[in-house]
Structures are given as structure tokens and as C-alpha cells.
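User: My collaborator sent over this chain with a note saying "see what the structure looks like." That's all I know about it. Can you take a look?
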Amino acid sequence: MKTILSTLFIILFASCVQSQNIKIPLPDKQSPSSNEAVAYFAEGCFWHAEIVFQSLKGVRDAVSGYSGGNVKDPDYETVCSGKTGHAETVAVFYDPAQISYETLVAAFFASMDPTELNKQGNDVGTQYRSAAFYRNDAEKKVIETEIKRVQGQYKQKIVTQVVPFAKFYAAEDYHQEYIHFHPNNGYVANVSIPDFIEFKKNFKGNFKY
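Assistant: Without extra context I'll predict from the sequence alone. Here is the result:
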């Protein structure tokens, strides 16, 4: 028992130290560029997705919210019930002159497991499904091309939904930049930040820092 408790303490301590040392990317304060675009992705917990995209040069902001459902003005509690049809989603505001939609889509697939159906890790439910929302045929083609490219990396079939964008609802204020404000939250320290570190280690992107 002492050995188990000691191991758990070491893991939790390492996670806290890790969460304190990692620099969490925040939205850029500059004004939007004249040609700013927005992309929408769902990949499990939106806290994780938010810092993934905000870590990339050319992304001004990633806003946590809900999309893909049929209920107007949903809140976190109703979305968590799984009855709204919405998925936790991020709206990614970016400058196409600095980062391409292709790169955003590549980052999306590199930062989660696209073979998990209606879940990501321990987050289970349709609200945690993987989905890429396209706004035009060009974006749809980019997503489908990336799926074909990465399918060979997995034994199981990719189940990410490729669906037309309809409506995005920003989540409650307390969800925005949650990881930055709560780095030692148990979920953040032991799931969100380790996943982010793994993403930065493996993705060949142009990071802000």
C-alpha cells in the first residue's frame, strides 16, 4: 500500500510540476487581420483543443463552445446530458497568410485519436465526438484528403465526422482559457497538459513558443 501511495504521490507531484513549467498559449491581443478566417473543430474536451490551436503561429484565438446539435443557445449542463446533439467545439480564428487551413486540419488530427467513436480517452458521450465542420467544398476536400493520408497510421477506421458547419455557440466564460487559470486542476494537470505536451513533441508545426 505504501508503495502504491508513494507512486501516486510521485505521479501527481510530477504532473503539478509539469503543469507549472509548461507555458500555456493564450489568445493574441492584436486586432484581427483584414482577411481573418475561422475554422471549427470538435475533438473531445474543448479545454485541450483550445490550447492546441492557440499554440500555433497565425492563430489569434480559439474559443470554446458548442456546435453540431439542434438546440439553440445550449449551456454546459444540457450539452453534457448528451441530448442536445452538440459537441464540445472550438472556433479557431486565424490568418490564412500565416497559417493554412491544411495545417489546422493536420493539427486537428494530430492532437486526438480519430478512431474513437463518441469519446476521447475517459471523456465519453456524443458531446466528445470527433468532428470537422466545413464551410465550403474546398475545406471538405482538405479534411477528406487528410483522413486518407493519416488512415494508414491506425489499425481501426477513422470515425471523425465530416459535416457542414451550421451554428456555433460560445461556451460560458469560465470555460475560456480554463487551463491557463486552473493549471493544477486534476484533469488539467493529468490529462490536458500531458496531451498537449505530447502534441507539441510530435506535431511538426510552427509554434509561437
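A starting point for your reply to your collaborator: Residues 41 and 108 are 7 Å apart (CA to CA).
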